[in-house]
Amino acid sequence: MSAQLPLIEQDRLFHVHGQTNLRQHGEQGPAVMVTEGHGVYIKTEDGRELIDGFSGLGCTSLGYHNERLAAAAKKQMDTLPFAPTFYGRSHPRVAELAARLTAMAAVPMDRVMFQCSGSEANDAMIKFLWYRNIARGQPQRRKLISRWRGYYGNTVAAVSLSGQPHMHANFGLPMDDFLKLSTPNYYRFHEAGESELEFSARLAQEFEDLVLATGPDQIAAFFAEPMQSGGGAILPPNGYWEAMQAVIRKYDIHFHVDEVVCGFGRTGYRWGAEAFGLEPDSTSCAKALTAAFFPMSALMFKEDFYQDMIQNSDEVGVLGHGFTYSGHPVGAAVALEALDIYDEIDLVGHVREVSPHFLDACRALMDHPLVGDARGIGLFCGIELVKDKRTREQYDPALKIGQRVQDAAHAGGLYLRSIPPDRISFMPPLIIEKTEIDDAIAILRKALDSVWAEIGA
Ligand SMILES: Cc1ncc(COP(=O)(O)O)c(C=O)c1O
């Protein structure tokens, strides 16, 4: 019976969606039902085509159609659709992928563990830090420092790391041991007359103060995205990473860099760490690892870290961690093919070539009365909507300005992601061409115009 309902109704009645207003979904059904895609376009159930302005969720690096990736998945499914990686068992593709990833890391990394999502990679890292510290005779080192508006995932520990209050509220989270620093959104939070460098120095001082108040010997790690993504595409200001890394070095803090979004070209560098001169001790990546054709993530760390883990595994008998689908053969085959494609088409080079065009077009939107700020790197730009450009005053959240711009953009043919209160995270697939960027920007401008006409005056 229920299968005969229209798809929209099947979804409205039976499907529970994450990061969604459940009551609204129950009343209105899905905002969009995407049925197919090609290039940078998605097609919806009602036959409309939209340019994807946020790459799925920052993951569809190669867009929505790729015969080579599909063939790699099919070949692997035909040959070996599954093999576990528990109990020291392996298969060819995962061994190859592990070696390949360590060889291409931003700074030398020696070991890789595979998971199925970014959340799981970060969650595993938290566990491994605690595990490792026990091996080193420092079990008290449990505090994890991250930043407000950071996004590290949804599992219990990874979400505690995330600096997204709506993901903590009414879950009784975050867990203890998770400490937060300010987001480096210079535009929103700088004080009158404060330069970017001064702002960066103030945030680094906040970091140092927290380290001293906590006790450096209590700290397990500092986790950060090179550029905050789920927080609204927040470009770190001048001097920020230099100042933060000086604190990291001064107190010998383990630095975990989350490359789940930045990895594989988003910033115009293969890794976000390269874009901002970061020196991670460990790193996680996902999303573009398989161009989002298969759920897979990788966690990389160095040999000394691994040697401490070996010590614990000797004591316990095994590394007591893992997922059934860790290192899935189809995911590994797709990832290897995606990495080949990235090299062959010089994806990073393409991002660098179109990036100035993209960023200029985004910055040009700042002449619009609704746009207070637009800044980014590569194909990754955060746009902040404001009520008063002079004072940076924001609209009453109840007006849902970001949501309205998003809806107007959808109506015009651009699939967009607004992040409350009023930021737009603009991050198209990495294969996008300049003409497609122009089309996307024109639709966005029209959407801004229509919202301004509604509420502006
Ligand atoms: C920077 C970052 N880290 C981790 C995650 C979590 O990844 P996943 O949704 O695959 O669990 C995300 C998700 O968007 C992310 O943006």
Task: Tell me the overall shape.
Answer: globular
What percent of residues are in strands?
5-15%
Number of helices: 17
Number of strands: 15
* Distance between the first and last residues' Cα: 50 Å
- Class from helix and strand fractions: alpha/beta
- Average pLDDT confidence is 97
Largest sheet: 7 strands, mixed
Spans of at least 5 consecutive residues with low confidence? none
Question: Ions, cofactors, ligands: which are bound?
Answer: pyridoxal-5'-phosphate
| Amount of helix | 40-55%
Q: Major sheet: order of its strands?
A: 4-10-9-8-7-5-6
Radius of gyration: 22 Å
Oligomer: single chain
Description of the structure:
The mean pLDDT is 97. A hairpin with a 2-residue loop joins strand 11 (371-377) and strand 12 (380-385). The N and C termini lie far apart (50 Å). It contains 17 helices and 15 strands. The radius of gyration is 22 Å and the shape is globular. The chain is of the alpha/beta class. The chain is 43% helix and 15% strand. The strands form three sheets. A seven-stranded mixed beta sheet has the order 4-10-9-8-7-5-6, sandwiched between helices. The structure holds pyridoxal-5'-phosphate (PLP). Pyridoxal-5'-phosphate binds next to helix 3 and helix 6.
